[in-house]
Amino acid sequence: MNTNKRLADSEIVELIRQKDQRGLTLLYEAFRSEFVGWAVKFTRCDVEDAFDYYQATVIIVYDNVLAGKIDDLKSSLKTYVFSIGKNLALQHKRQQTRNQKLSAEYYLELYMTSSEQFENDEKYLELVSKCFNQLGDPCHSLLDLFYYHKNSMEEIALALNYKNPETAKNQKYKCMERLRKLVEAELEKQPVE
Fold first, then answer.
1. Which of 70, 103, 156, 190 has the fewest CB within 10 Å, making it most exposed?
2. Which residues contact 5 (CB under 8 A, 6 or more apart)?
3. Residue 118 in 3-state DSSP?
4. How far apart are the C-alpha atoms of 140 and 59, rounded to whole Å?
């Protein structure tokens, strides 16, 4: 039975490598219920957060397959998925429990709404603005539609020709991750005080 599972894992990975949409669908559906149940229990998060962790995990696994990072998978695909999901959940919990810098998403929202009441955050807003302008499309357009124009995921999916609102939501997550990394890189170069 374990051999069949490994075969199924390799088939899913191969479909993803070939950029066959069925591979992503199979990956997404394979461990979703089990992961969400585990995440709710393990991290004491709500079901919606557990689904967000899972979606982010699937995106990472998908990207890693396409990048050739798991050509020689030593464990089962399930173990790999759960290990990435666990790391994401723990990282998120650490960020919540520590009083660390506010997220790029928070500053992006402030920047996009041009709120003048946050003068103390001006340097961060300038930094996020600079990084936001480096993003390029589709991220720039997507985040602009979401934060500035307050469009729903359904409206964004239509405007940017995404398959469905979930695809738009996944792309938004990727864009925010890209923005967060740009902000972190800029902060390492010259910390904002």
1. 190
2. 76, 78
3. coil
4. 20
Range of the domain at 64: 2-97
Same domain, 180 and 130: yes
What does the block give as tokens for 96? 């919540």
Which of these three, 97, 131, 151, is where a domain ends? 97
DSSP 8-state assignment for residue 5: H
Quote the CA–CA distance of 46 and 34 in Å, as a whole number: 14
Nearest Cα neighbor of 186 from 74, 93, 117, 104 is 104
pLDDT digit string, tens, across residues 142-171: 988 887 778 889 999 999 999 999 999 989
Query: What's the whole-model pTM score?
Result: 0.49
Label residue 143 exposed, middle or buried (CB < 10 Å: 0-12, 13-18, 19+): buried
Domain boundary among 66, 97, 128: 97
